[in-house]
């Protein structure tokens, strides 16, 4: 057939996981925990399964879960989304992002995104006939260049996708960034798609700037988060999307035909589990893992970049005598094969493979896994 995505192959996450397995490498590539979730959540899941929650959930999601989400967002960020009409439970954040794009984009419409970008944004835009307009973030700070954003805006701009904490760079947007964005799009119809899947993993006392905190932006935004990240259950693929009524109405029109509804038992389990507040411990949980890993690899020869949030940390290898001029993909493959630690090249997050010789490591791993990876990375010296 005439492919709509002729340039797309298997994702880098899958490829590096396969390579890690093949070479017995410690897999710090694909972002997922190598430990299990809270046993209490599993009990809640078991109970949901045994109590007959095994048929279709309501289209927008189990009401009790939507109510919990609404309460949580109100208490954390001060905005109240109406649980009945402004929240939808989705099959992962990926589906929420895809659905939002699908209801916004008409053929030829432009969507601004920041590169390095999570890999699903670009294909979702193009599958819907849209045109990705890419604004580059640069190592080592990866700060948005607001002049470049201004220049990227046009009469065809339909949406802008933002992501804080940011995958892969582990950078946070500030309140000032949100303010600047709000001013830039004030007199346009641009809709914000805010990918906040790492919202609870914020380090060193910083604050998560959810779009839900910023009324001018929230009024024109889809705010998306994922339970996969918050509760160490990436395989459940349960996430949610919040938006003002006019946007959510359109979102649900598409949602009901893209997936209709999502996995029912896990929604009941999560509705019961959410009030425990386990997500509020996530920042300190992951900050400790970040520090454990960074202390153990501080002198391994890579140049570590700051990790302000998410469960990733990146490093530059540009200064290495032997490997410094290799493409990041070649370096990541070599590190997997020869050093025994898998990572992800940041060049894979740029559509044209732009390469600043930086690779990403995931520290959502058991302490022993991080220690084993660190001791292998000492071989770089
Ligand atoms: N956005 C970002 C920035 C991510 O890192 C991920 C997953 N790693 C997703 C979206 C997708 O989340 P989900 O697994 O809930 O689809
Ligand atoms: N989001 C995860 C990452 O960045 C991977 C998810 C996936 O494999 N699609 O590593």
From TrEMBL:
<comment type="similarity">
    <text>Belongs to the class-I pyridoxal-phosphate-dependent aminotransferase family.</text>
</comment>
<dbReference type="InterPro" id="IPR051326">
    <property type="entry name" value="Kynurenine-oxoglutarate_AT"/>
</dbReference>
<keyword id="KW-0808">Transferase</keyword>
<dbReference type="GO" id="GO:0005737">
    <property type="term" value="C:cytoplasm"/>
</dbReference>
<dbReference type="GO" id="GO:0016212">
    <property type="term" value="F:kynurenine-oxoglutarate transaminase activity"/>
</dbReference>
<dbReference type="InterPro" id="IPR004839">
    <property type="entry name" value="Aminotransferase_I/II_large"/>
</dbReference>
<protein>
    <submittedName>
        <fullName>Aminotransferase</fullName>
    </submittedName>
</protein>
<keyword id="KW-0663">Pyridoxal phosphate</keyword>
<keyword id="KW-0032">Aminotransferase</keyword>
<dbReference type="GO" id="GO:0030170">
    <property type="term" value="F:pyridoxal phosphate binding"/>
</dbReference>
<dbReference type="Pfam" id="PF00155">
    <property type="entry name" value="Aminotran_1_2"/>
</dbReference>
<dbReference type="InterPro" id="IPR015422">
    <property type="entry name" value="PyrdxlP-dep_Trfase_small"/>
</dbReference>
<feature type="domain" description="Aminotransferase class I/classII large">
    <location>
        <begin position="26"/>
        <end position="377"/>
    </location>
</feature>
<dbReference type="InterPro" id="IPR015424">
    <property type="entry name" value="PyrdxlP-dep_Trfase"/>
</dbReference>
<dbReference type="InterPro" id="IPR015421">
    <property type="entry name" value="PyrdxlP-dep_Trfase_major"/>
</dbReference>
